[in-house]
Amino acid sequence: MDQEKRNQKSIDPASLEMLSRAEEAGLETAWERYDKQEPQCGFGLLGLCCRNCNMGPCRIDPFGGEPAKGVCGADADTIVARNLLRAIAAGAAAHSDHGRDVVETLLHASTGQAPDYQIKDRDKLMALATELNIETAERSDQEIAAEVASTALDEFGTRKGTLAFLNRAPAPRREVWSKFGIVPRGIDREIVETMHRTHMGVDTDYVNLILHGLRTALSDGWGGSMWATELSDVLFGTPQPIEGVSNLGVLKEDEVNIIVHGHEPTLSEMIVEAARDPELLELARSKGAKRINICGMCCTGNELLMRHEVPVAGNFLQQELAIITGAVEAMVVDVQCIMPSLTGLAGCYHTEIISTSPKARFPGARHIPFEEQNALKIAKEIVKLAVENYPRRNPDRVFIPEEKMEFLAGFSVEAILSALGGSLDPLLNAIKDGSIQGIVGLVGCNNPKITQDYGHITLTEELIKQDILVVETGCAAIASAKRGLLLPEAAQKAGPGLRAVCEALKIPPVLHMGSCVDISRILVVAAAVANALEVDISDLPLAGAAPEWMSEKAVSIGAYVIGSGIYTVLGTVPPVLGSKKVASLLTEGANEVVGAAFAVESDPQKAAGLIVEQINYKRSRLGLP
Amino acid sequence: MKGNIVVTSSKCIGCHSCEIACAVEHSQSKNLFLAIDEHPRPQKRVLVESYGRSNLPLQCRHCEDAPCVQVCPTGALVKQGVEEAVVLNDNLCIGCKWCVLVCPFGVIMMAPDDHIMIKCDLCRERSEAGRLPACVESCHTGALQLASTAQMARMKRREFLVEFLRDQ
Question: Is the complex ipTM higher than 0.90?
Answer without folding.
Answer: no
